[in-house]
Design brief:
The structure holds 2 protein chains of 2 kinds. Chain A is mainly alpha-helical. Chain A has 20 helices and 2 strands. Chain A is 72% helix and 3% strand. Chain B has 22 helices and 2 strands. The chains are: A mainly alpha, B mainly alpha.
């Protein structure tokens, strides 16, 4: 069975989606249990895949191959490398917690869980695909259900129109969930279009008859092609990773999305973008990557600072977390741009750490919103007295966010900044550290304003703390943050195997071109 | 005898038409309405039977009438498309025709069968005379069918059906005239009507003019920009199940004619027609996608989207090589199920955005099918439309049509916007208290087949792609002796 483990991980949510679709709409508990079973199988599978990955052998393991269109060399080819394990685990944790967080959903549950499971099957598929076209397919599957998930189950809210563009704001109904859904979908699909064109170029230039990532990496592309195509992949995938200035879908999208969808999207989907830039863009086009990294890194540094400053000026809790994601994804891209072992390890570790942290954040924000029916920080205060559990976990997430030693956030930021220093781009390190400092300001300010300080006003005396299934998701995510902070080797060793496999491909001097 | 073997498929369609005709004429005049329905079923089952039979016949290439007609993998592939379109179109329209014209149902199916007869001859025709005759055999019944409900329809639709038919007829007649003029120039200058010999001689300037007129004439039929004006009006005016058929089968037939004349007949003069086809492809994609954006009637929206889809087909045709032409076929299959299904859903649910409101609640199955079709039209992975677009772009990229690919990819993203609008109407609005749409069994069956095909080929496109590639190589790599001699 272990030889088909990856198919099981990818297939379980898809199968669960089919089961949910077939259940009668009124069978509300059955829908939830089927979804949870699918998520549990994937989570257990990804834990097992991570633990049983043979670190001494390294490389691609558990290779599975189904010819999809053999005449064109398109294969459904799954394999696990050093990076896949931790990222699968992250996805497993987030979907498990996400299903638990959606337990109390009241509106059109059947369709909701189907879309959620389809989306997550796509995410799993991306992390293990070794065929660039199948990679792209799963990538699309992961992106597209967002439109419906945000458009139907999302929340609209008032965004005060200010500044010279307020006419345009009112015209497009900024803050409306339909606006957020359409903006997100169209921006990400423009990115996909760029990726598709890049894939065509590589396929045509490689003169191979397959889309296998290994074959494409072995091919030699001329320097001109590499330099021309790399930005397509960087910005195409980067749109999903929130690369400045193509991050604008992210705050609107995350603020409008329902809780579990925000968790999945900020927690996992944005990582797909960064993963794509590294796994496809940099590994397949090493010369292009080497030529472009100064710009990639500089933009990432802007991301870190710009996201942090934007977060500082928000008054809506969800927008704060959304902008902090933009800032933290900058750290991932910064690590990737260093092209050092430390930077790459840190980038992948930050994907996991930030995924869990932001998942926890959005779960908590969802809880607070569900009870208080507001996301405006000014109206809140002293919630810690009525919901101590939520307050404690929120503080934990904040501490990880600002990079307190002992939490996962510290490990990743430290390693990334180390890599940036080693790569000689001292200014990146400076920007990163400054970003972490600004992060400390806004997260601590938000925590104090919401949870600590004088007791809550009359309206909020009746707020309840977390309930049964909600505890489940909070404890799982919170424990993840602490465990990874205290014992980072748990993942770093495996991640290092992946980086050690791919980094030499990028750094090796180009072949005859 | 060998002629009969080569022509078995057109002959069986003709036989079916005659059978339905006789059954309608000779039966005693009792239970007319029920008999009409039964004959509708007979038409659908007969076509389905012929379709099934195509899998059990000998597939070697045969010619009939001294090479005027050639049965090959190419013609068989397209004939299967027409047959499936026929079956699904008949099933989809069964209830509608019974409701509109209960006493004249059989006539409707007979007319449709004769149109189908013209279609199934077209891909095998290797002589321009036969092409023209078969093309007219296909077109004239369609004019009649477009006007079918002119007097029987509800008063508010009456004018529309007439308008639809007149537009289709006038444009069709004009395009036939243009086509014939072009053919006259072409055959007159080249000295032959045989497709295989047409391109042997160098092209004269007048022949090039003839080619352009030919492309323009055929372009009317497939709704290619700038000859697309009739499409949205006719789609809006004629009865929707018939439009479902009209929007796929005749277009596929038109494309097959363009492919046989240009990709096969003019294969040695690629430089004379590829730039024109590329230009029309670009225009169709751009105009179709942009003009679909502001539409408020779903039939018009699908009409413009169909224009854009034809643009993608033309991109594949512009590759002028075997793989690209194969992907034309693959795209046509994808388009067949997707567009036919989408129109049938629109027929069942309603023509306006408002009528889709709350569809997810009132008819979850129908909404799911609509989701499938829209995703496929937009080219989203794991439904067949994605592979269709992907292969077209891949083929075009290989052939060096980089600009067309980039334009196509960008315009496809633009197209997503209006498909998502339809999706939003069906899934995100729930206003007013509309009743659940009532679907008859045949209509349900037809939509289900379309949806299953869209999803099935989307999950596993491999065999179909291979089959399409084989079909096109049967057309293009079978170089006739005369052409080989001339090349030496």
């Amino acid at each position: 069975m272990t030889s088909h483990l990856l198919s099981i991980i990818v297939g379980a949510p898809a199968l669960a989606a089919v089961v949910v679709m077939l259940l009668p709409r009124t069978h509300r508990l059955g829908i939830r249990i089927a979804s949870l079973v699918g998520a549990t199988i994937s989570l257990a599978g990804s834990v097992f895949a991570l633990v049983s990955y043979d670190g001494h052998k390294g490389g691609l393991q558990r290779v599975e191959d189904f010819p999809l269109v053999p005449s064109l060399g398109i294969h459904l080819r799954f394999a696990q490398d050093g990076w896949a394990g931790p990222l699968l685990l992250l996805t497993g944790i987030i979907i498990f917690a996400g299903v638990l967080a959606s337990w109390t959903l009241q509106k059109r549950e059947q369709e909701y869980f189907v879309l959620l499971l389809v989306l997550v099957a796509g995410v799993f598929g991306v992390f293990v695909s070794q065929d660039v076209l199948v990679f792209f397919l799963f990538y699309e599957i992961a992106v597209l259900p967002m439109y419906l998930l945000i458009g139907i189950w999302g929340s609209s809210h008032e965004v005060p129109a200010r500044g010279p563009f307020r006419v345009v704001w009112n015209l497009f109904k900024v803050g409306d969930k339909q606006y957020a859904a359409m903006k997100l979908t169209l921006m990400l699909l423009v990115g996909s279009a760029a990726i598709l064109v890049a894939i065509f170029v590589m396929y045509a230039q490689a003169h191979t008859s397959s889309f296998d990532l290994g074959d494409l990496a072995a091919a030699h592309y001329s320097r001109r092609v590499q330099i021309a195509v790399f930005p397509l992949l960087w910005l195409g995938f980067g749109t999903l990773a929130g690369v400045f200035p193509f991050h604008t879908w992210s705050p609107d999208g995350h603020a409008s999305a329902p809780t579990a969808v925000s968790m999945l999207h900020a927690g996992v989907l944005m990582k797909l973008g960064a993963f794509g830039v590294m796994r496809v863009g940099m590994v397949l086009l090493p010369e292009g990557a080497r030529a472009w990294v100064p710009i990639v890194g500089a933009v990432a540094a802007i991301n870190v600072l710009y996201g942090a400053f934007c977060a500082m000026s928000q008054t809506d809790l969800k927008y704060i977390v959304a902008y902090s994601s933009v800032s933290h994804m900058g750290v991932v891209m910064l690590g990737a741009a260093t092209l050092t072992p430390a930077g790459w390890n840190g980038a992948v570790f930050q994907m996991v750490a930030h995924g869990i942290m932001t998942g926890l954040f959005f779960a908590l924000v969802g809880l607070v919103y569900e009870r208080a029916h507001t996301r405006a920080i000014r109206k809140m205060g002293g919630f810690g007295r009525v919901m101590p559990g939520v307050a404690a976990f929120f503080t934990l997430a904040c501490l990880s966010s600002l990079g307190l030693p002992g939490t996962a956030g510290f490990v990743s930021e430290f390693v990334v900044f180390l890599g940036a220093w080693k790569s000689g781009h001292y200014i990146w390190t400076l920007a990163g550290v400054l970003g972490a400092f600004v992060t400390a300001i806004y997260v601590l300010r938000a925590t104090r304003a919401i949870f600590w300080g004088p007791g809550p006003t009359e309206d909020f005396h009746e707020l309840k703390d977390a309930r049964r299934t909600e505890w489940g998701s909070l404890v799982l995510l919170g424990a993840g943050l602490v465990v990874l902070g205290v014992w980072p080797r748990l993942l770093l060793d495996t991640i290092d195997i992946g980086s050690a496999r791919y980094l030499p491909m990028v750094l090796a001097m180009g072949g005859p071109s | 005898m060998s002629d009969l073997l080569a022509l078995w498929l057109p002959l069986s369609v003709a036989g079916l038409a005659v059978l339905v005709l006789l059954a309608d004429v000779l039966a005693p005049p009792v239970a007319v309405v029920a008999r009409g329905r039964a004959l509708g079923w007979l038409t659908a089952l007969g076509l389905a039977g012929i379709f099934v039979a195509t899998f059990f016949v000998d597939k070697t290439t045969r010619t009939a009438a001294h090479g005027v007609y050639e049965a090959s993998a190419w013609s068989l592939f397209l004939q299967r498309i027409f047959l499936v379109a026929g079956v699904l179109g008949v099933l989809g329209g069964l209830d509608d025709v019974a409701a509109r014209t209960p006493r004249r149902q059989a006539e409707h199916w007979i007319t449709l069968l004769f149109s189908l007869l013209g279609m199934v001859i077209l891909p095998g025709a290797r002589d321009l005379i036969l092409v023209v005759v078969a093309f007219e055999l296909m077109s004239i019944p369609l004019y009649v069918l477009a006007a079918w409900a002119k007097n029987d329809a509800k008063p508010e639709e009456r004018g529309r059906a007439g308008e639809a038919a007149i537009k289709l007829y006038l444009v069709g007649a004009t395009s036939t005239a243009v086509t014939l003029f072009g053919l006259g120039l072409l055959t007159g200058m080249q000295g032959t009507t045989r497709l295989a010999d047409l391109g042997v001689m160098p092209l004269y300037p007048l022949s090039s003019l003839g080619l352009v007129m030919l492309l323009a004439g055929l372009g009317y039929k497939i709704g290619m920009v700038p000859f697309h004006m009739w499409v949205p009006d006719t789609y809006q005016g004629a009865s929707t199940p018939f439009v479902a058929f009209l929007s796929v089968a005749p277009k596929a037939a038109g494309i097959s004619v363009v492919a046989t004349i240009f990709a096969f007949g003019m294969r040695d003069h690629v430089a004379h027609w590829v730039p024109a086809v590329s230009l029309f492809a670009l225009l169709s994609m751009a105009v179709g996608n942009v003009l679909a954006l502001p539409q408020t009637d779903l039939r018009r929206l699908l009409g413009y989207s169909g224009i854009a889809q034809m643009g993608y087909v033309l991109v594949a045709l512009a590759t002028a090589e075997s793989f690209g032409t194969g992907m034309v076929l693959f795209f046509l299959v994808a388009y067949l199920f997707t567009n036919l299904g989408a129109f049938l859903v629109v027929h069942a649910a309603g023509h306006s955005f408002e009528s889709l409101s709350g569809l997810f609640r009132r008819a979850p199955g129908l909404a799911l099918a609509l989701l499938c079709f829209l995703l496929s039209l937009a080219g989203i992975p794991f439904v067949v439309g994605f592979w269709a677009k992907l292969y077209v772009f891949l083929a075009a990229w290989r052939a060096g049509l980089v600009g067309l690919v980039v334009a196509g990819v960008v315009l496809a993203v633009l197209g997503l916007f209006y498909y998502l609008r339809v999706l939003r109407a069906a899934y995100m609005t729930d206003e007013g208290d509309l009743p659940a749409p009532k679907l008859g069994v045949p209509l349900k069956l037809s939509i289900a087949v379309c949806a299953l095909a869209v999803a099935g080929f989307g999950l596993w496109p491999g065999p179909l792609v291979d089959e399409a590639a084989r079909a096109s190589s049967a057309l293009l790599q079978h170089a006739p002796e005369t052409a080989q001699l001339a090349r030496r």
